[in-house]
Amino acid sequence: MHKGKLILLVLAVALLAGLAWWRSERGDDPLAEGSEMALCPNLDVARVAGIRTENTAARQEVRMERDEQGVWWLVEPLEWRADDGVVRQLLEIAQHGRGVPAPDLEPEDAGLSPPKATLEFLERRLDGSERRHRIAFGANDIGPQRMFALVGDPGAGTLVRTSRAPMALLELPVHEFRDRRLVHAQWNQVTALERRGALQLPQDGEAGETEAPPPWPLDVRAEAETDGWYSSDPVRVRLDPQALGLLLRALTQLRARGFYDDSPDETKSLGLDPPQFELTFELGGGDSFSYRVGHRQLAPDEPIPEFDDLDWLVQLEGRSHVMRLDGLDVRLLASPLEHLVDHQLVRFDRTQARAVTVELDGRRIELVRPFGQWLVPSEGGGRPADAATVGDLFTALERLELLGFPWLTPQGAGPAVDPGAGGVVGRLEVRVDGPDGELVLGGEFAAPVEIGGVRGRPYRRLGEVAFGLLAEEDLGRLLPDPSRLLSLELLNLDELRQSEVRASGLGRTRHWVRDPQKGHWTAVGAELEDKRFALIVDALLRVRAERMHTASELGERGLVETVDVELIAADGTSARYQLGRAPDLDPEGVFVRIDGTLARVAPAGYERLRELLDVR
């Protein structure tokens, strides 16, 4: 490397090392330079208990205080919860605001006699004393981004140049300091709600020219129960958890679009006396809140706006303030009962299910799970159910929904059909493990009906009054072919746990035992492994059906040329079944009868076993 370049490189490294040492000595605080200072020196923001803002030009003063729970409240010029966002931005100014001292200027030259605006923070110290931090803002500095401010009390403060950003907050009107949430509650703490009233929208046209539609009734009473929310008025019916969740969130997180009047002379012209509807909700701790919702009455010559453009207003019970609401919020609060009703046939956790029964039109399917496996009940106690078919049935139970609840519509608007007049013609029953014992869920089917070209079955969940409509084509998913319910795997034994196999037929019996050390199967009375038997032992231990049948299909002769098989395990338990032919059912097929079940199976194992029995 050239000697001159080497010297420059050494000097550069030394310069960087010296700069790093200097920065480590002075720290990263820009105030250490003396070029900047905090607008609120030595303020502990966590101990700020009060804030005052004054806009001199607008003659507006706002005072806020923090209560013992840490909530900020407006106390002047009115009492209201303060907007958390505005408070947070004001505290950001107190914590991070900086200014550059301007010692050569006088307050009069900086537009601080009087100031444009003032910002004060009240700090309550650990020793119980109080200290006020005052910032007065004056004229703009050169350029629109900076202005003059006086940090501290008049006559003793420090004149600085600082950012003009705080003025955007101090010039806000009073209502922008107010929290727009009507109440502060958690939606999942609501235990009951009640809505009374009707939705009557203004009608366009001359009086008598257009007949106004009847008001839409909104009356409903709903309460949270152990297994979900239910309406008790006007009819008992389960409510959809998602739809109700939207309504509860709208209730507890309702925000005013604006503030209409804090002390109106009267509320009749505002559509609040009486309101279009009133909505009350209760919390688990006993608190309750009530909204009165309506819209400002229109003048005779005033054009009729769209629903969302109406001047929707709300008043919280116990307070005189009237606030504006967004039309979308009104739509949520006035959700018809039909939109809140649960459309799912039955709600349950399939892992807790213990039995399922479906009966309709003379058909019946039944499944039980006494232990870990689903069974189809039979005389022998139950046969394993087919896992795929059971899975499809549970998926249908979890996903099938009613088309609607036509019998919930306002009086006179629904179909002239009494779904319960013909009596109950079918049922769906799901038994599940509950916290206090077994629960029976499901519902009842009524006779088929046709509404609006749709044919279906009225369905009423247990414990409810209202019928919904299930499409006829969906019934097949609830009533699979009973022959598909049984598992095609009729027997599946672990060879390592078996010790003996006995086979008898046509007057002869053979007996094999398994050597637990070598794993070989040997015919009783022989010493060497029976390799021919070893080829068919898997087929004897694992029996799978090709097709399920019923005993009535056998015909008069039943099974012929039978071979009885007994499998004995090392612990003494045994399994038995019979193989044979059924000439009346299928002359070429081989069938098995096991635990009351009849099925056609692959013929290879049967034919080899007959060869070993030597009965041909």
Q: How many beta-strand elements?
A: 38
Q: Which band does the percent of strand residues land in?
A: 35-45%
Low-confidence stretches: 1-8, 10-33
Q: For the terminal residues, how far apart are their CA atoms?
A: 104 Å
Describe the structure in brief:
The chain has 616 residues and is an alpha+beta fold. Helices cover 17% and strands 37% of the residues. It is built from eleven helices and 38 strands.
Question: How would you describe the overall organization of this protein?
Answer:
The chain is an alpha+beta fold. The protein has a ten-stranded antiparallel sheet. Strands 11, 12, 13, 14, 15, 16, 17, 18, 19 and 20 form a ten-stranded antiparallel sheet that branches. Strands 30-34-38-37-36-35-31-32-33 form a nine-stranded antiparallel sheet. A hairpin with a 2-residue loop joins strand 27 (449-451) and strand 28. The model is unreliable at 1-8 and 10-33 (pLDDT under 50).
Write the layout of secondary structure elements.
Elements: H1 3-26, E1 37-38, E2 48-55, E3 60-66, E4 72-76, E5 80-81, H2 84-96, E6 98-101, E7 117-124, E8 130-140, E9 146-151, E10 158-163, H3 166-170, E11 190-199, E12 216-217, E13 220-225, E14 228-233, E15 237-238, H4 241-252, E16 258-261, E17 277-283, E18 288-295, E19 312-316, E20 322-324, H5 327-333, H6 337-340, E21 353-360, E22 363-368, E23 375-376, E24 383-384, H7 387-399, E25 424-434, E26 437-446, E27 449-451, E28 454-461, E29 468-471, H8 475-478, H9 482-485, E30 489-492, E31 498-505, E32 508-514, E33 521-523, H10 531-541, E34 542-549, E35 560-569, E36 574-582, E37 586-594, E38 597-601, H11 604-613
Antiparallel strand pairs: 1-6, 2-3, 2-7, 3-4, 4-5, 6-10, 7-8, 8-9, 9-10, 11-12, 11-13, 11-17, 13-14, 14-15, 16-20, 17-18, 18-19, 19-20, 21-22, 21-25, 23-24, 25-26, 26-28, 27-28, 28-29, 30-34, 31-32, 31-35, 32-33, 34-38, 35-36, 36-37, 37-38
